[in-house]
């Protein structure tokens, strides 16, 4: 039963680790370590004790690596330690400064920019916003900063 629980936490940790979810991976590695430590304590003469201890060592090493990779200002649980940073000025980025994402830029122009500049041409109204979604690094922030 405990072996299955440790295995479940380890598999979840590896999956989260591969997906880049460092906080979730750390939490699951820690849970796996706790269960493995219980197994070692409960069955000190077990044949598998050495394997459990090796797994504990490897999971602890991986936790240290993941914690080093976490952004500044977060603790091991992913909680922010300081207040949110507020930008003091708007970045000076224009659509023409952003390479690629032509379809996204055109969709934003048609849905937001043109109607807000010429409301007389859109008597039925228009969307007031667009939800940008996607993986990290796909350009969401640059597009938002470059609108207009």
Explain this structure:
The protein is mostly helical. The protein has 2 domains: 68 residues, Phosphotransferase system, lactose/cellobiose-type IIA subunit (Methane Monooxygenase Hydroxylase, Chain G, domain 1, Up-down Bundle), CATH 1.20.58; 51 residues, no CATH class. Helices cover 55% and strands 0% of the residues. α2 runs antiparallel to α3. The longest helix is centred in the first third of the chain and has 21 residues.
Summarize the model shown.
Helices cover 55% and strands 0% of the residues.
The biggest sheet amounts to: none
Sheet-strand content, in percent, reads under 5%
Percent of residues in helical segments?
40-55%
Number of strands: 0
Offer a few descriptive terms.
Methane Monooxygenase Hydroxylase, Chain G, domain 1, rod-shaped, mainly alpha, 148 residues, 5 helices
List the helices and strands and how they pair.
Blueprint: H1 2-18, H2 22-42, H3 49-69, H4 102-117, H5 140-145
